[in-house]
Amino acid sequence: MDSVKFTSQYEPADFETFVLVTHDAGANFLEDKIKSITGTSVILEDFSNAERNTVKSYNFVADGKFKEIIIASAGKLSEVCDMRLEKLGGYIYSKIKTNNSRICVLNNIEGIGHETTSAFLTSGIILKSWQFDKYKTEKLPAKIGSLTCVTNYIEQNESKYPELDALIQSIFDVRTMVTEPANVLTPTALKNMALDLEDLGVNVSILDNKDMAKLGMNALLGVSKGSEQPPYIVIMEYRNGKKQDKVLGLVGKGVTFDAGGICLKPAKGMSEMKGDMTGAAVVIGIIKALALQQAQINVIGAIGLVENTISGNAQKPGDVVKAMSGTTIEVDNTDAEGRLVLADVLWYVQQKYSPNIVIDFATLTGAIQVALGHEFAGYMSNSDELSRQLELSSKNVGEKIWRLPLHQSYEDDIKSDIADIKNVGSGRGAGSITAAMFLKHFIKDSTQWAHIDIAATEWDSRDRALSQKGATGFGVRLINDFIKKNVMDEE
Ligand code: BES
Ligand code: ZN
Ligand code: ZN
Q1: Domain-by-domain residue ranges, the chain?
Q2: pTM of this prediction?
Q3: Which of 117, 137, 145, 328 is deepest in the core (most CB within 10 A)?
Q4: How many Å lie between the centroid of ligand 2 and the Cα of residue 338?
């Protein structure tokens, strides 16, 4: 796409597509604008009292050229908020028919309290536009040539948009990483993508096989044994905060392909396991978004990158490994590998950087889809305060999360006869919770911690408001908002 522009003047002849965004009581606005665009009075359907996200497209010819008018209703003006406008932007994108279109967005929602309407509509339109055609010989057409928003609040929109643009770029990166096949996106390739953040002032350091062996990270290394691909832990340090003692730790599961190991997964659907590194991608994305904004915060991102495949050297069910923390683990199921990877990364981050808050992202369990479907990510936390803060941010940005209990009564389920704990529950259900109970063994009492299981929200086989079928990039906007509201140094 060429450009995003906020302006108070527009010349109808310069555009192919017009988007008129209105609300339940905005009929006059539509008539006036349509007349100024088409030169004639056109009577359309009645949009007053239209339900939220009603979007319709009309065609007309002006100056001998085919043009498109899209009318979108935000519903009740009293209920309009940034997040809803962003989603409306996504629905608008779906209606655009013209390719490479110069798009002009006009709205009558702007006003006190809604000064950044144009920026959020733009963000929604662009977020929804992402598609992946790298491996297609015939490229997919792009609908947006340029986007111009007509607004009386140019300054407010221009100062808000860089944050939204940073999020868009980062979310697009996450979606790309998740969609890339596992023969391309190996642990080495993902490590190199994280290294690119150095250009933005992030300090990136790497632990390789030997470093991890020295540190006793046998839980992570055990997963990697069946693979030809070398494993890595990548640490991304972004330090731009004033209070040097306050550090946020972000940890991500980066299994670049999860075949299940010796406990091999069935063939059907196995290809989806190229996305088992989404947690790592989200952590890279969040750090990129913060660095692009030059946010004043200290964050440590740590991702464990391995492939869980199969060979004569692969770890076997029943093997016992000792994690870096000293806890011994019976590997009852080699397909419950994410928690083994996270065990060592979580412990390392706390030992080395003493973050006061740690949030981990992982496509950890299929059970989370059974519990919550694709709508909510499930999370578990040892802190009511952190949970409250995350839920507020979740509501602000519209990335839905739901807390599940992290209760001691589930602990018995992961007791092992031979070691301290085993890596799967005894089959009494609550698979997402027992996975979190396992992780809790690697969390210090002094750490406020949340584990977000994104196994069912990272990818959707249906269109969502802000993404087409496929990778969603869930989590980046959630944590950006959480950081802005709770962690960032006050000016
Ligand atoms: N990567 C999977 C979880 C997953 C499932 C992610 C579906 C995305 C979509 C994880 O490593 C796994 O295999 N978990 C097992 C755990 C079981 C062996 C206790 C599962 O969910 O079946
Ligand atoms: Zn697995
Ligand atoms: Zn996995």
Answers
A1: 3-158, 185-486
A2: 0.97
A3: 117
A4: 6
